[in-house]
Each structure stands twice: as C-alpha cells, then as structure tokens.
Amino acid sequence: MPDPKYGAAHQALRRxxxxxxxxxxVHCHHLPECLEPDTKIxxxxxxxxxxxxxxxxxxxxxxxxxxNRGTARIxxxxxEQADTYQWFT
Length: 89
Ligand SMILES: [Zn+2]
Prior knowledge:
- By secondary structure, the protein is of the alpha+beta class.
- It has one domain (8-88).
- The protein is 38% helix and 20% strand.
- It has helices spanning 8-23, 65-82, and strands at 26-27, 40-41, 48-52, 55-63.
- The strands form 2 sheets. It has a two-stranded antiparallel ribbon with strand order 1-2. The protein has a two-stranded antiparallel ribbon with strand order 3-4.
- The structure holds zinc ion (ZN).
C-alpha cells in the first residue's frame, strides 16, 4: 500500500533511488553542505528523498535524515520571511 503522505511520483522516485542506494556508492545530495561526517549513504541505512533548497517542489535524491530536516528548517525560515507559509503546508 502506498503511504498516503506522499504522491505517486515520490513513491516511484524513491523506489528508483532505493535500488541505487542498496547497490552502494550513493552520496548524500544535500551538498555542498552535508551535515554528516561521511557523505556516503550506506545500503540499508535510513535516508530521505531530498528537495532542492531553492525549490521544494523539485526532488534531488537521497539525503541523510538529519540533512533533510536541516533543509526543511531553511524553507520554514525563508517562507516566514517571505510571508508565504501556506505555500508548503
Ligand atoms: Zn548528508
């Protein structure tokens, strides 16, 4: 069953990336500012599908959960400054 929190596009993209993460060699897409000491995303580890910092409607690729949450904080700050909070809620 698909997770109702996410759309079909997100699901399909996440499946695609999962194959690549499981094969190894994928690095965190939260660059150049990955928050972890090791940018590699290890097969079997937790990861989030990241968004572009400048355009939250665009997906980038796997990020460490910590890095992804950092991005969400940046959007919130930007949205509050721009008074467009409803845009992503
Ligand atoms: Zn990272």
